[in-house]
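Fold Annotation — chain and its backbone

Encoding — discrete vocabulary of local shapes
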Amino acid sequence: MKVLGLGAHPDDLEVFCGGTLALFAARGDEVVMCHASIGNLGTPGGDPAELGDQRTREARRAAERAGAEHATLGWRDGTIRAEDSEQREALEEFIRQCAPDLVITHPEADYHPDHRGLSRLVLDATHRAANPVRKSSYPPLREHIPIIYTESETGLEFEPTEWVDIGPVLEVKRDMVAAHASQLEPLEIEQHRATELFRGMQCGVARAEAFRPCMRWLRVRTRRLLP
């Protein structure tokens, strides 16, 4: 199976589903970790161009640690908008080129406008990518691919229906998150680890990541897709 993780910023996938992506890679699946924006406004007072380059390097190191391929759409931080037709077309082309069997991305109701914008762009672009009539440099997807939504920030407005035990790859996830040295403060790291503990408690393991599948027509599957 080919799994495409689409996060708005360079550290989003690592924090919300890094363990799950590492598990996919460990069992032999092909994993692509793509951040839509370069996160160039992620640190106050820094030079945006330098920061964008640094965060892209950090994301590349994190993907390597997971055994995944790294990619970025190169958009500017804070500019992701669901109604942006150019972004939608660019994402459609990228998805056609990647041809994944599954996409993991942000839930529709998250705190950051970039997260919400990307979530809707993913839904729309994957739909368009399966349309054989649309002109493209790449062939259409063979079907409307399933989408699975990650945890929201601190779990607010997010009710999961599936959990993944990340215990076997916990150290890998720790290294993936640690690669983003420019961003995550100790308090933020503890916050995310508390979420892992809480989700683990819900499903009877030490630490877990939580998810919810997209329940739209043509996206539902009869089998579990997560590891």
About this structure: The chain has a mean pLDDT of 95. Residues 48-66 form the longest helix (19 residues). The helical segments are 12-26, 48-66, 85-98, 113-129, 170-178, 186-203. Residues 54 and 182 are 8 Å apart (CA to CA).
